[in-house]
Amino acid sequence: MHMKKISEIILKFLSILYKILPFFIGMYCYYPVFINQEERIYPFLDCLYASIKLYSGSTESGIAVGGLLQLARFMALAATLSIVINLLNKVNDVINGMKLFNPNVTVVYGDSGYAEYIVESLSPGVRIRGEDKFIKSAARYLLMFSSDTENLEFYNKYYESLKDKNVYIMLEDIARQNIENPRITVFSIAENCARQYWKDYPAVRNEKIAIIGFENIGKNILLYGLQMNLLDPEQHFEYHVYGDGKQFRREHTELDRMTPDEIIFHDDGVYELSEMSDFDRIIICGGRDENQNIAIASKLLVGAPLHHQIYIYAPNGDIITNLFGNDRLICFGIARQTASADIIFNEKTMEDARRQHEFYYKQYGGTPWEKLDSFKRYSNVSSSDYMYTIKRLLKEGVAEEKIAELEHIRWCRYHYIHNWKYGPETDSAKRIHNCLLPFSQLSEEEKRKDIEAVKSKM
After folding, report:
1. 180: which of 257, 277, 316, 397 is 20 to 30 A away, CA to CA?
2. Taking CA 410 as the corner, what is the angle to CA 453 and CA 448, rounded to the nearest 5 degrees?
3. What's phi and psi for 32, nearest 5 deg?
4. Over the stretch 6-52, which tens digit does the pLDDT of each residue have?
5. CA neighbor of 60 nearest in space, from 27, 86, 84
6. pTM score of the predicted model
């Protein structure tokens, strides 16, 4: 610690020396010349002025500029730029300090390309781009570094300052259910992309769906489709996954509980172009390699007798639109939209989830929202996402009891996705719940709870 302080003092001294050294070099070079010029009445003051003028990048006219004076001129100009930059930073600090009085201000940290998009989507008065220094007293903080490790290391580094703040952390490979702090909101670009996809392009009838590519985007497209595409208790969706799903099945052991829907994995990723015409929906969602997605789409357009559009994951969607137009390909997951403030903060969905839980809490007791564990909190978020489907079904005249049954199926699927099982006695530690049953086998009291919950959403 002592050595660190000494190093800081030395660096500060060198910084000051670097700024004032050009002045003394100027005095050293100019004074012998000015003192011998008879026309100069005050040679010392003229020398002083000429030395200061070096900081503008100018030398005294009529004076030969030697190597040492030339060096001083360049050093002085660099020092001036450094001072100007520091002053601008100070001005920026003052502006940021004034922004901190706004209760909605957000500080964004991170080098991810998505970070720039959310900064652009926030209004200037409520955004601060965090750089090398930590800014205290903001309403909320957004961590968007390129890797999960960097995001967690940043949070850990400033834990004492952040532990009582609202913090949004981007994590793509670490499950948010592991984060118990209610002030931390974990989000994933892949999850946001999948959630928004099914809201923008919902299924309105039974479909046979091909998911080509099974990285994070494809996995979330499947998981959110299973939770949001619930139209009838007797429905039959087919999800065909083209990509290696072996590890996914090891992580999600209850996928066979998604009946009457069916998930068919083609682990080799091979598909026949002639078979693609049998699908109602084709979703191309490989990893971050947009070129690979474009290549797959191109082959399908040329070789498959398709009668419908193809959905393609394309963060830079304008490239594909310029190449192919909008008639056959629909781009989703466009970075500028996926990383917007509305989608990342998802405030409406979170507020709907909170209200829904408060309805249950007031009616039946339990745990208040602020003390809910992450799993239950996001179970309510899943229900809030499903509201888009519920509202559509209500407009179509579907009976409340049937919608309550569908909501129960969604609730079960959320638990099955996280490897819960049925048991006569609920045990959260063992992931066992006594309500993981078909709706018809629930007690009348449990059925009534589901029906009342649907009514509360109208």
Report:
1. 257
2. 30
3. -60, -30
4. 888 888 888 888 888 989 988 888 888 888 887 788 888 888 988 89
5. 27
6. 0.81
